[in-house]
User: Which sequence fits this backbone?
């Protein structure tokens, strides 16, 4: 890998694809990290692979974690249904996966140390989102502080920066930014409850946010909905 490196959490969704494009535009050699964690919407890993190839990342790793072992989410326990047409109608929805972004960023931090990267990027958003606490600015700031007291790299004078460039953007603004950077959103996947072939349900929180974002951005939505 050549040049300055950044580790980017790449789920295969709209936000993470945009973040990867932003990191590349900032001059970083992108080391993308995806997770096979027992998620109901495992089809997103196919999208992550396609997005990584499309963006020409330097390296793409998929890490296997078994978050079904602790459950606690409709995304990791099939006994719970994914809510439909309920965006904004409850508090933190049952699609919240306990400590997911903490776990994912911890893995990204370890990966960054091994490849000599000091920058971590992920697609947290606190405007058009489902209300997850690990997508808010306070979480990002707290994790960056943690990274800089918990690592050999930081102890030796190579501090980490956690970038969440989408955190105060609307979904429409995110889409417009991605289009300007050449992101092919037809490759991305957002649905929490897709069919086996990756067709999106069109009614979960993630689908509703995606639909609204494309409509407000004035950009055709390339998603396959049921």
Assistant:
């Amino acid at each position: 890998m050549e040049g300055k490196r950044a580790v980017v959490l790449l789920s295969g969704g709209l936000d993470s694809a945009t973040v990867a494009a932003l990191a590349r535009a900032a001059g970083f050699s992108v080391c993308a990290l995806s997770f096979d964690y027992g998620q109901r919407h495992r089809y997103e890993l196919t999208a992550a692979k396609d997005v990584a190839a499309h963006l020409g990342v330097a390296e793409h790793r998929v890490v296997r974690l078994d978050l079904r072992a602790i459950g606690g989410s409709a995304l990791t326990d099939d006994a719970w249904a994914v809510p439909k047409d309920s965006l904004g109608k409850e508090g933190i929805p049952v699609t919240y996966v306990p400590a997911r972004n903490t776990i994912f960023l911890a893995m990204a931090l370890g990966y960054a140390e091994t490849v000599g990267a000091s920058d971590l990027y992920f697609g947290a958003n606190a405007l058009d989102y489902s209300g997850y606490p690990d997508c808010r600015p306070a979480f990002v700031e707290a994790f960056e502080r943690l990274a800089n007291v918990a690592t050999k790299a930081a102890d030796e004078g190579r501090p980490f920066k956690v970038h969440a460039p989408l955190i105060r953007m609307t979904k429409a603004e995110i889409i417009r930014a991605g289009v300007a950077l050449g992101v092919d959103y037809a490759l991305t996947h957002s649905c929490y409850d897709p069919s086996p072939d990756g067709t999106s349900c069109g009614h979960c929180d993630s689908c509703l946010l995606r639909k609204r974002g494309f409509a407000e951005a004035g950009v055709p939505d390339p998603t396959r909905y049921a």
User: Anything to note?
Assistant: The first strand starts at residue 5 and ends at 9. Strands lie at 5-9, 29-36, 59-64, 119-121, 161-163. The chain has a mean pLDDT of 95. The two ends are 40 Å apart (CA to CA).
